[in-house]
Design brief:
The protein is an alpha/beta fold. The chain is globular and about 55 Å long.
């Protein structure tokens, strides 16, 4: 995170923290109690001018809103700048939800231009269909790309003719997984990385592209929406193959960039429109 902020010129450092749990098995009330207790425990080290938490895996704007509210209760007044990724109603920023995927699109567009590879018609495979992956699918399709494969923790789906990202997202929300989506072939998570495509977007967890499977990856561009999806050994193999790897510290820096914008807006109590955010 420190390197990522340095790459995009943001005056933040980097740290990680969390709670070991399975939020999918918890009720909203249990999540709220845990979040508020966790915030209370770390309240001595966070603050609008010290450490500023932002959302990551298994967190969302609701969780960040609880964190802000808990910290503010201890201070005795509202402190919106203490966290980012909040709902708009409590000081969140326009464009924050789409920020990571938007950044992935921006840098991929530039990489494709350098390779003289048109995005229109390009085949895209996305490993991970959470916030970053599902939004990236929508944005890349709007650019004229063909989303040929996506996956989640349960498995993947493939359709050479292309998938409708909105329909896949609706199916996942209804069934809890993309597996079983009609008019698509079921594949395993590993296959989604190795299927024929022009652009591969690892948008899930770290260490999924390794020395074991790097030689089987067919994409010309790999845009790292996840943190650390490619091991150093795999990176060497991909380089020798001529694959362009857009590293995570650049590819997914859109999220922390708009987090910075949100922090600045909160400090000033002066909010920008989405056109200014994405300009």
């Amino acid at each position: 995170m420190t390197w990522k902020c340095a790459v995009v010129g943001i005056p933040f450092g980097g740290a990680k923290g969390g709670v070991i749990c399975d939020p999918k098995s918890m009720t909203p009330a249990e999540l709220e109690r845990m979040t508020r207790r966790y915030t209370t425990e770390i309240s001595i080290i966070i603050g609008p001018h010290s450490d500023i938490p932002a959302p990551d895996v298994n967190t969302n704007s609701q969780v960040m809103g609880w964190m802000m509210d808990t910290y503010s209760m201890h201070e005795g007044f509202s402190v919106p700048a203490v966290v980012t990724g909040k709902p708009l109603s409590v000081g969140g920023s326009e464009g924050r939800n789409d920020a990571t995927a938007t950044g992935v699109l921006f840098v991929t567009r530039q990489a494709a231009k350098r390779l003289n590879m048109p995005l229109k018609g390009a085949r895209v495979s996305i490993q991970g269909y959470g916030n970053a992956g599902s939004i990236a699918a929508r944005l890349f399709r709007n650019e004229g790309c063909k989303i040929v494969a996506v996956s989640d923790t349960h498995g993947g789906i493939y359709n050479e003719a292309g998938l409708d990202p909105a329909a896949v997202l609706r199916y996942k929300q209804e069934h809890g997984t993309v597996m079983g989506f009609p008019q698509a072939q079921s594949v395993n998570v590993q296959d989604v990385l190795e299927l024929p495509c022009d652009i591969l977007i690892p948008a899930a967890t770290e260490g999924v592209i390794t020395a074991t499977n790097a030689d089987r990856i067919q994409a010309r561009i790999i845009a790292e929406a996840a943190n650390g999806p490619t091991t150093p050994e795999a990176d060497d193999i991909l380089y020798k193959k001529g694959c362009v790897v857009i590293p995570d510290i650049l590819a997914n820096a859109g999220g922390v960039t708009v987090s910075y914008f949100e922090w600045v807006q909160d400090l000033q109590s002066f909010f920008w429109g989405v056109e200014e955010i994405t300009a």
